[in-house]
Amino acid sequence: MSTYRITFKEHLRFIMSLLRYIVISFVAFSLLSYYKLGYWDINIVISLGSRVYLLLITPKLLMYLNYYFTNKNMVVCYDEPKRQLRVTDKGRDTTFGMVDIRTVTEYKTYPKAENRTTWMPWDDYHYSLVELKNGAKFYFTSLILPNLNLPIDKSKITLKK
Fold first, then answer.
1. What is the largest CA-CA distance in the chain?
2. Which of 3, 44, 73, 74 registers the highest number of CB atoms within 10 A of its CB?
3. H or E element: which one contains 158?
């Protein structure tokens, strides 16, 4: 049985991506400063770099917080031999089989949906809505289930970009 929850590893991955974009911003604006002015100007690097960094990171931070609060207490257990999912979230404990799923709607960015290289900081964030035949709905974000590959009929899966 596989168990999924938001772990420290997910938080660390988020922090590392923030650091990666700090380095990219610093290097890019250092090169730009040197190319345009002929010398390296720390004031331009910090001024422009911090603005672009905030412009790129703000959507990622908002998505991360939204996804975190959506799935922060959720625990998902998948029993492969029985083909059942057990979802514990917000005081409810639900077990269902793959035959109980009415539809799965996956919401992804264009690069993620088309399996291309991601360029923007928020491209790796996506979520899936699983609707059961009894009317129950579950949102699984990429923080808890990075790849939702359920063994169900492909006609039940809708991809939205």
1. 67
2. 74
3. strand 157-160
